[in-house]
């Protein structure tokens, strides 16, 4: 029984974790690096996205003004009180703004992905910056077009015992301002990871790699016989009783036995 002729420590072919051989380089034809014109175009697209989302903040502010619950107030000519001290209208205004911001982030991220499937850092930055500026603009529009912030003057104007609306305010300003940009970034990155185009894997060209026959020897004649242990296998194969040798009891002549 002979030992296997597979040389030890031979790397498996097409091993994905194997490092490229020394002196190898990527075969041309893969994704080329972006030049200055492409980078300028991506920056321009990111700026356009940020500007459009900032303008969309007007729609967010109007929707917030329309959908946010009102906080009823009442005056007795000496002070202003909450008409319903157990009401949740104040926190309802914050929740409405956050939900609208999440919806605007989802829609804006999907629209940007459909228009530009390749993605890119400038687009993600444009989504985040535009969502933040749009949220700030929506906050300002809602408070500006809503009930006046001068509660005392408003109470005197409506008179004693008449219910009027409190000014529209945000209490959780940080969460409300970050809802749109965070939702836009997460949705866009998820869509890009799931449905975005894939870059082809680079193919390595083994430049200067030794020939397969000379992997474990030198010269063109190097083959399985030059591997370690091959000589020992030949010696063990040509023992007594083998086809190539003669033992003491083989069929030789008398002269040869003498």
From TrEMBL:
Biased composition regions of type Pro residues, renumbered to the chain: 1-10
Segments of this protein annotated with the region Disordered: 1-35, 200-258
Compositionally biased region (Low complexity): 211-240
Annotated Basic and acidic residues bias: 200-210
Keyword Transmembrane helix set for record: yes
Keyword terms: Membrane, Transmembrane, Transmembrane helix
Chain ranges passing through the membrane: 47-67, 95-114, 121-141, 172-195
Coiled-coil region: none
UniProt-recorded name of the protein: ABC transporter permease
Organism: Streptomyces clavifer
